[in-house]
Write a structure and sequence with these properties.
With 333 residues, the chain is mainly α. Helices cover 80% and strands 1% of the residues.
Length: 333
């Protein structure tokens, strides 16, 4: 009904012949024109592949890897904290087990939440919230006056550390395809390094200086506060910017990546994958029309109008523009 209404509106408006002439000129262009049109746009994937792996990715790797280190430290400290807290508070076996278990219960809840939040509000912004949440709750737990207080804030730490896994997602979105497997395996180094640091920290504070677990939890939280200082210098994911419709911001991030790596972005306009597919479909329809018989011309025009109707359904094409297209194609036929 929407298409019929648009058609009737166009007929009543008695559109000029200029639209028909323009369409005839477009569908009459040769295949070289179609190829040049589709080559004047590029996607985030193509831009990252052109930039390759370089200094820019190394800096992002260090940033996300540091989050991974802290995540490992917060998990590793559980095996040290539980026995010390048992002696300090006189805990029963089930209370000691609960102190460890609540962290993983919090992580389960975090896994269900952080991915959706990050897709909606962006990678960088949510990672910042996660780091602040973990850093503050971990530091507060270091001043726990009793067992219940410690359980509550360690569960919040678990909820936050679940989001630290999104640091890997953030890092992957800057990697070219051919380097992802190799680099991601190397990034596992940060987790191992974090567990080693926590053990050495416990040996130093608890073993050598005879400090209690409060000091251990406090020093374990310090690296996250350091990582927070790096947030103003790291970019948002260009994939998220494109999905949010902020093409200009995505292009600036990609230009920064290209400059840092000593590369050049592809020539043309940055578009989303769906937008490039639409342009390709329209180009294919025009190319088929340019070199085909009467039957091929009709089918290609129908294909072109199908694309326009699809854009109309997605509210990407105004009713007046759809009407002009319908009338013009009818006149050409």
């Amino acid at each position: 009904p929407g298409y019929i209404h648009a058609m009737n509106s166009a007929v009543d408006a008695d559109l000029p012949q200029a639209q028909t002439i323009e369409l005839q000129q477009v569908v009459g262009d040769d295949s070289q024109h179609v190829k040049s049109t589709t080559s004047e746009v590029f996607t985030v994937d193509e831009a990252i592949e052109a930039c390759g792996y370089g200094w820019f990715q190394f800096k992002v790797c260090m940033f996300s890897g540091f989050i991974w280190v802290v995540d490992a430290m917060e998990i590793m400290v559980l095996s040290i904290l539980a026995p010390l807290a048992r002696c300090d508070y006189g805990l029963k076996p089930w209370e000691e087990s609960l102190l460890t278990s609540v962290v993983f219960v919090g992580m389960i809840l975090g896994f269900l939440v952080w991915g959706m939040v990050m897709d909606r509000h962006g990678r960088k912004k949510v990672l910042f919230v996660i780091c602040v949440l973990v850093a503050v709750s971990a530091l507060i737990s270091a001043f726990a006056p009793n067992y219940a207080f410690l359980v509550v804030f360690r569960s919040i730490v678990g909820f936050g550390t679940a989001g630290a896994f999104q640091g890997v997602t953030y890092f992957v979105e800057f990697l070219p395809v051919k380097r992802r497997g190799y680099v991601l395996m190397l990034s596992s180094f940060f987790w191992t390094f974090g567990t080693m640091v926590e053990v050495l920290l416990a040996l130093l504070l608890v073993g050598h200086y005879q400090l209690d677990w409060h000091w251990l939890l406090g020093f374990t939280a310090v690296p996250l506060f350091i990582d927070l200082l790096a947030f103003p210098f790291v970019p948002e994911s260009p994939y998220y910017c494109i999905s949010a419709g902020d093409v200009e911001k995505a292009r600036k991030i990609l230009e920064r990546m290209a400059q840092s790596n000593g590369k050049v972005l592809p020539v043309g306009r940055l578009v989303s994958v769906s937008e490039k597919q639409r342009i390709t479909n329209e180009g294919t329809a025009m190319q088929q029309h340019a070199g085909g018989s009467a039957e091929t011309e009709m089918s290609s025009l129908v294909a072109l109008e199908t694309v326009h109707m699809d854009r109309y359904d997605k509210a990407e094409l105004a009713p007046e523009e759809l009407a002009e297209s319908l009338v013009s194609i009818t006149r050409v036929l």
